[in-house]
Design a protein that fits this description.
Blueprint (H helix, E strand, L loop, with lengths): L9 E6 L1 E14 L6 E14 H11 L2 E9 L2 H12 L3 E8 L5 E8 L2 E8 L7 H12 L7 E5 L8 H13 L3 E5 L13 E2 L3 H8 L6 H15 L5 E3 L5 E4 L5 E4 L12 H14 L4 H15 L10 H12 L10 H9 L6 E6 L6 H11 L4 E7 L1 H8 L8 H9 L6 E5 L5 H7 L3 E5 L15 E5 L7 H10 L1
Parallel strand pairs: 1-4, 1-8, 2-6, 4-5, 8-9, 9-10, 14-15, 14-17, 15-16, 17-18
Antiparallel strand pairs: 2-3, 6-7, 11-12, 12-13
Helix pairs in contact: 1-7, 3-4, 5-6, 7-8, 8-9
Length: 474
């Protein structure tokens, strides 16, 4: 859809480097010492946070990433550098300050819910001396980058002096420079390509209560004028992204998040996706669509997370076909749709699915786990009669197709009139052709057009025939 899968822009991320430390626990009782929960630790894990999470998101999208920031001479900093390096991120621009601890945020998670956060950090601004050293290091490298992202968590790295020096340098080289801002004074971001404030941050910075589209538009105009931005936008959480078009009119790019488990790091994903998309040649409107989809993927995960192109495509696919009946396609429509899913692993199976039962569900769920897109070719009524006899099917083809489309594991249904789906298989050339274990040792129609054929065990004792035989006894 976006054509970004083969893009590999070189992006420099500058900002507050930190670790997100997660304590996974369960709580079943209250402390006798105080009215607080007792968290019984089950597991702990570290993840890249802050500007590092922006870099991690960029790597997952295929960007070449260089990281710049300040860490302490401690075990947290050593873990951070090691893990950035393992991702292939350039760490040559990371500076160590002996007296400064590496920022570490510890979150206690109980039943997928964050119940407590403990921060270890020094939020004082880095010295002018280290600021000048950082700038001097970057000054002659800036031409190497397609985009610069400033990830500001208000932890002291992006002070006004360094931020303005970098922005002016980037603009002098006609480089994209995107800033994720913090604080109530956006003056230090003046001259950037764009900022990505959320609604609350924008309200504070512009001193505007955003209550409707008019006040939202006013806030966007204020940001653009006061900060001398090329593009003015405000992120609106589940409502997407608002921006001013070329005529200074409000435009909203909506998003759809199916399930929201944790919004941690969603802002990192948005700015990473915007930087990647704009570097890849998309206009701001398409870039916002891409960023929205990426953010919708990560909020469906727990903790700081990333989104891949495959996950973004899958999310957009599921949103586009959220109405069950939209999954039922003609042969022509199916082939057209598959053109936009070329990088997906296509799974194909077929059957009558006359009376849907547990065996069918198990079979289809197992089939879906073999790839990305599951296509079910459904025998038409005429086809079923030829195969099963005049008394079948019990349910007409439209009803059978609609019931199948309600299953989350099924992506598309196509009805065919022939005795076998060989013609459809030859057109689709699926990655995997799936059939039941009862086909073992038998010739499977269309198998020569699939990259591989796999057989799945049935659930013992469950079949449409058995169900019909029981019904006759009632």
């Amino acid at each position: 859809m976006f054509g970004l899968e083969d893009k590999n822009p070189h992006i420099l991320v500058i900002g507050d480097l930190m670790i997100d430390h997660y304590v996974w626990a369960k709580c079943e009782r209250i402390s006798p010492e105080a009215p607080v929960q007792i968290a019984e630790v089950k597991d702990e894990s570290n993840r890249l946070g802050g500007a590092c999470n922006v870099g991690n998101n960029l790597v997952s999208l295929g960007a070449k990433v260089s990281m710049c920031g300040v860490i302490g001479n401690d075990d947290t900093g050593k873990w951070l550098v090691k893990n950035l390096d393992s991702l292939g991120i350039d760490i040559q621009n990371i500076f160590i300050q002996n007296h400064r601890p590496t920022t570490k945020k510890t979150r206690v998670i109980v039943s997928n819910q964050q119940v407590l956060r403990v921060d270890k950090e020094d939020k004082s601004a880095i010295s002018e001396e280290i600021s000048k050293e950082i700038f001097a290091t970057l000054e002659h490298k800036i031409s190497n980058y397609d985009c610069i992202i400033l990830s500001d968590y208000n932890k002291g790295v992006l002070n006004s002096f360094l931020t303005q020096k970098i922005i002016k340098l980037a603009r002098s080289e006609n480089k994209l420079i995107l800033c994720d801002p913090k604080g109530n004074d956006f003056e230090k971001y003046k001259g950037a390509t764009l900022l990505t404030p959320n609604k609350n941050e924008a309200q504070i910075a512009t001193k505007t209560a955003i209550t409707d589209d008019n006040t939202l538009t006013n806030a966007l105009k204020s940001l653009k004028k006061d900060c001398n931005l090329s593009i003015s936008l405000i992120t609106l959480s589940e409502d997407g992204i608002a921006l001013l078009d070329k005529k200074n009119k409000l435009t909203k790019i909506p998003t759809i998040a199916k399930e929201v488990y944790d919004v941690t790091g969603a802002g990192d994903t948005v700015i990473a996706a915007l930087g990647f998309a704009l570097s890849g040649g998309l206009d701001i409107y398409k870039a916002c669509e891409f960023a929205n989809a990426a953010a919708a993927v990560v909020v469906g995960k727990v903790g700081s997370a990333v989104a891949t192109h495959a996950e973004i495509a899958q999310h957009l696919h599921s949103c586009a076909y959220s109405d069950s009946s939209d999954k039922i396609l003609s042969k022509t429509s199916l082939l057209t749709t598959l053109q936009s899913l070329k990088n997906k692993k296509i799974i194909f199976t077929n059957g009558c699915f006359d009376i849907l039962h547990r065996g069918h569900i198990s079979y289809l769920q197992k089939a879906k786990k073999m790839g990305d897109i599951l296509i079910v070719a459904l025998n038409s009524d005429a086809s079923v009669k030829r195969l099963k006899g005049k008394a079948r099917p019990i349910n007409p083809q439209d009803d059978r197709a609609y019931i199948l489309s309600a299953l989350e594991c099924v992506d598309f249904i196509v009805i065919f009139d022939e005795d076998t789906p060989e013609d459809i298989i030859s057109l689709i050339s699926p990655d995997v052709l799936v059939k039941g274990k009862d086909y073992e040792g038998k010739q499977i129609a269309g198998s020569k057009y699939a990259k591989e054929t796999r057989l799945i065990d049935f659930v013992d004792g469950i079949s449409t025939t058995n169900i019909l035989n029981k019904a006759k006894l009632i």
